[in-house]
Design brief:
Keywords: Hydrolase
Largest sheet: 6 strands, parallel
Order of helices and strands: EEEHEHHHHHEHEHHHEHEEHEE
Radius of gyration: 25 Å
CATH superfamily of the largest domain: HAD superfamily/HAD-like
Protein name: Haloacid dehalogenase-like hydrolase
Strand content: 5-15%
Number of strands: 11
Strand order of the largest sheet: 6-5-4-7-8-9
Organism: Medicago truncatula (Barrel medic)
InterPro entries: HAD-like_sf (IPR036412), HAD-SF_hydro_IA (IPR006439), HAD_sf (IPR023214), Pyr-5-nucltdase (IPR010237)
Number of helices: 12
CATH topology of the largest domain: Rossmann fold
GO molecular function: hydrolase activity
Length: about 325
Amino acid sequence: MQTSSFISSSMPLSITNRSGSLNEMEFVNLFTQKPKYDCLLFDLDDTLYPLSSGLAEACRQNFKDYMEEMLCIDPRKSDNLCTLLYKNYGTTLAGLKAIGYDFDYDELHSFVHGRLPYVNLKPDPVLRKMLMSLPYRKLIFTNADKVHALKTLNILGLEDCFEGIICFETLNPIHRSSVSVDEDDIEFLGLTRTTKPTSSNSASSSQIFDIIDHLAQTNPSGILPKSPIVCKPSENAIQLALKIANLDPHRTLFFEDSVRNIQAGKRVGLDTVLIGTSQKVQGADYALESIHNLPEAIPDLWEADLKSEVVYTGKLAVETTVTA
């Protein structure tokens, strides 16, 4: 006689979920199917807090002030120039570098963000609870600098809701020999100063590309100068962020308030959520008035957490000793 052990499947087995009992096939699928997403990638400004806070408007004004006070740009041109640079380069900072201005990045960020009305932001416990309940990797992806990102998240009470922050310094690691893809190093790569201070932040007029005059022509000839800055909505910036964080674009959900950033994300394979309007646009898989509408708009995001809520009822399969 020889004895052996095996797991018997002849005993009755049933489990229940939120909606009731699951049959055997549903039980198998429940434990074998992967969630649709591995990671939720969030923009910061005007996405995790509303546009009505006034920070975006203040940021634009601060950029104009910096251009006039520190770069000696004619106040009569600063407003138009700010608009054209943002439209054509993704950020005003990237545009200023493209057309020939030299300045210290840390100084500009400190000037522009240091004067923002952070007092308009308040802790958001509702958003915090929602984010903490989502069973995925969660990352911030912003064009802003690390100081602003940290301060904003801290005020909102969300500083520990995210695994890491991909920011200006992450995407523009000047003076680094390589970009780390270590997940533990996602937060704030490339913290070294990205340009050396110059004796003057202004530049001679002969060195500056006149983008206003160029675009005012009926048929502008040539192409605009390229910027050394990597930022959204560049597809290269999004692909770099995905590489740094080791993300599969087809298993990542991207949250943004910018239509052009949403469309760029869609082009690289991301599923996308436009925040700030309920009107869907080309490139947006979902459109929400507020990030707070997420549970109602995409309830499936919480289904990935179903396994932790499974309740077993009845008799389970048990190890049985048999004689053969």
